[in-house]
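ok so I'm stuck.
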Amino acid sequence: MTILVTGAAGFIGFHTVQRLCREGFEVVGVDNLNAYYDVSLKRARLELLQGLPQFEFLPLDIVDKSALVGLFEKQRFEFVVHLAAQAGVRYSLDNPDVYGQSNLLGFLNLLEACRQYPPQHLIYASSSSVYGANHKMPFKENDPVEQPVSLYAATKRANELLAYSYCHLYGLRASGLRFFTVYGPWGRPDMALFKFTEAMLKGRAIDLYNQGEMARDFTYIDDIVEAIFRLLSKPPAGEGQRGANRLFNIGRGSPVALLEFVECLESALGIKAQRNFLPMQEGDVVRTWADVSALAAHIGFSPQVSVDVGVQAFVEWYRAYYRL
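replied:
not stuck anymore, here's the structure
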């Protein structure tokens, strides 16, 4: 079977491709290798992937509809794992056009390609950011999510609604995954763990927003990939000729205070952090917490890796990659 993975040179895409190839799938990966963060990191990931015999890479931007549909016509994918997107809550405040292109037009193009050449299952990345400033904890998939507090969150909620419409109209089977603060080796430089590690090793202070009074449901990358792999063979059931679009939280299911997270990093690095406490940023939320009962019931798995173990693994990778 052949699987398409978009955003293959990205953090989650890279790990997903590795797992799928180990499981014996033929994988076609596409990525536009944009410069949102260090392109050399993306190329290093890609270099490792291109050593896998089951993997083929194509430099393709999902905003290019004709190229994307042409790829679907040529390959006829059994499964599609859509991870390409413009990420980042804070970046969306200053660069909204990029989010409209990649997250809205790009996803619409992907749905059109799936409509014309339907896969057995489309899995696409949503985000915990769709919950906005909801105060009810933990977040459940059927909670109201109509008040996003960032443009990034709004585009991810729009993806869920677009997918619902296409599934209803054209019989697609899709699963939208609301990822909760994914971290681990080969992670993104714009994420807190990466930025904190770099700053601490260089003797700089780390920025802690809302005076450090934050909590996140940190989710280790291997747990994310395990969930994606198990979901592939379990598309949601439709009714008659109708398709189905189902949403799942993918989180550890236990929020960790930001200051506790910093303490784990201090322990892994053997360095005491200099702390720069700042006010809350626009578009951010104080706390996230995933109810993962629906995921566990559907695939018999829920994320397991604790923050201390995950942070240690990241630090070991970081030191090896940057030769520190």
